[in-house]
Design brief:
Layout lengths: L1 H6 L8 H13 L5 H17 L12 H43 L2 H39 L8 H8 L2 H24 L5 H41 L5
Helix pairs in contact: 2-8, 3-4, 3-5, 3-8, 4-5, 5-6, 5-8, 7-8
């Protein structure tokens, strides 16, 4: 599946180079905000296509729709990422205050409390951020399938997917691809300018491959769910 995900963009023999060029340039320009929404919109299209078993990658067109989908995907990521951010800020902020106050008053207990709070807060922030990173792709897939933003926050619908081995495996593979791309991009940064530019294209390619895996996992799980529903409806009550 990893090999298929890395091959995905190249399935469009005529357009794949153009798609990577556009995606890479938009990724490099993400600091301008608008290009990042367009990249997110493209990833939504990737998920939407692959969950229906399409091996033909989307192209960059209908830019208005692409932009709107990107904004909605950003909202999903922002909301799920907001909770870990707020909790980490409150816990770490309180710990820093205890540390500062304790240091000023030479209170060993307050200093110790502040240091312990920093460690616990940092660990809590890491765990919650990891949890958010696990949920966000599934939430984006839920939105991509239904075209309803509310579906991304329906915990009841997301739970069976999030607790499945199929999704967990796809997510781990996707993270592995993104991390590998990050390492390569980091190594390329040793070459001024050129390394950074190439890294942008690698990052886009890796993100597409990762969301290809998420889309396939979502589609596979939804097919199983629909088949189970059909079987249940087909069962006639005993007389």
């Amino acid at each position: 599946m990893i090999q298929q995900s890395l091959q995905y963009l190249r399935n469009d023999e005529e357009q794949w180079v153009k798609t990577v060029l556009i995606g890479g340039i938009l990724t490099l320009l993400s600091v301008l905000v608008v290009p990042s929404f367009l990249v997110l919109g493209y990833l939504v299209r990737v998920v939407r296509g692959t969950m229906h078993e399409s091996e033909q990658p989307p192209v960059f067109d209908e830019w208005g729709d692409l932009f709107v989908d990107g904004i909605k995907a950003f909202v999903v990521a922002f909301v799920y990422g907001l909770v870990p951010g707020v909790i980490a800020t409150v816990v770490i902020g309180g710990s820093v205050l205890s540390f500062v106050v304790g240091g000023g008053s030479e209170s060993a207990s307050l200093v110790g409390l502040g240091m312990a709070g920093l460690l616990v807060g940092g660990l809590l922030a890491f765990v919650l951020s990891l949890l958010a990173a696990y949920v966000i792709p599934a939430a984006v897939a839920a939105f991509a399938e239904t075209d309803r933003l509310g579906a991304a926050f329906s915990i009841g619908d997301l739970r069976p997917v999030l607790t499945s081995g199929t999704y967990a495996t796809a997510w781990v593979y996707g993270i592995a691809i993104v991390l590998a791309a990050s390492l390569i991009a980091g190594a390329l940064n040793a070459v001024p300018v050129i390394g950074t530019v190439i890294g942008g294209f690698i990052a886009f390619y890796a993100a597409v491959a990762a969301y290809y895996l998420i889309g396939h996992a979502w589609g596979e799980l939804r097919d199983v769910e629909l088949n189970e529903q059909d079987d249940a409806m087909g069962e006639s009550p005993a007389v």
